[in-house]
Specification:
By secondary structure, the protein is mainly alpha-helical. Helix content is about 80%, strand content about 0%.
Length: about 140
C-alpha cells in the first residue's frame, strides 16, 4: 500500500459514513410517513405495521454500521496522526493533516499555508515520500 492510499483510507471511510447517514435520514422519513398512515383511516394495520417494522430494522442496522465505521475512522485518524508526526518537515506535517485528517481542498490548503496550489502539490509529493506506512 502506498502512503497516499494509506492516508486516503480515512477520507473513504468518512464518505461512506456520510452516505449511510443520508440513507438513514431517508429511512427515518419513510418511517414518519408510514407511522402517520397508521393513525389515519382504518384499514389493514398489519400491512403498514410490517412495513414500518422492516424499515425500523433497516434503520437500526444502518445505525450499527455507522457506529462501526465511525469507530474505525477514529482509530485510523489516530494512526494517521502518529504517522504524520513522524514526518520531519513541519510544513509537510501541516499539509498532510489538512489534507488527510481535515479533508481540505488543495485551494484551502494553499490559502492556509500561504502559497500557491502548484507549490502545495509539489510539497505534497515530497510529504508523501516522508510518510512511513505502518505494517499490519
Amino acid at each position: 500500500m502506498t502512503s497516499k492510499e494509506y492516508l486516503n483510507q480515512a477520507f473513504r471511510i468518512d464518505r461512506r459514513i456520510l452516505a449511510k447517514t443520508e440513507q438513514l435520514e431517508s429511512l427515518r422519513a419513510v418511517m414518519v410517513r408510514t407511522s402517520k398512515a397508521l393513525t389515519g383511516m382504518p384499514g389493514n394495520p398489519n400491512k403498514d405495521r410490517s412495513q414500518l417494522e422492516e424499515t425500523m430494522v433497516k434503520a437500526l442496522e444502518l445505525e450499527r454500521m455507522i457506529k462501526e465505521d465511525t469507530e474505525r475512522l477514529m482509530d485510523l485518524k489516530r494512526e494517521i496522526t502518529l504517522a504524520v508526526r513522524e514526518v520531519d518537515d513541519v510544513q509537510c506535517q501541516m499539509l498532510l493533516e489538512l489534507r488527510y485528517l481535515c479533508f481540505r481542498t488543495w485551494e484551502e490548503i494553499a490559502a492556509e499555508l500561504d502559497c500557491s496550489v502548484r507549490n502545495v502539490h509539489f510539497m505534497h509529493g515530497r510529504a508523501l515520500g516522508m510518510v512511513k506506512v505502518p505494517k499490519k
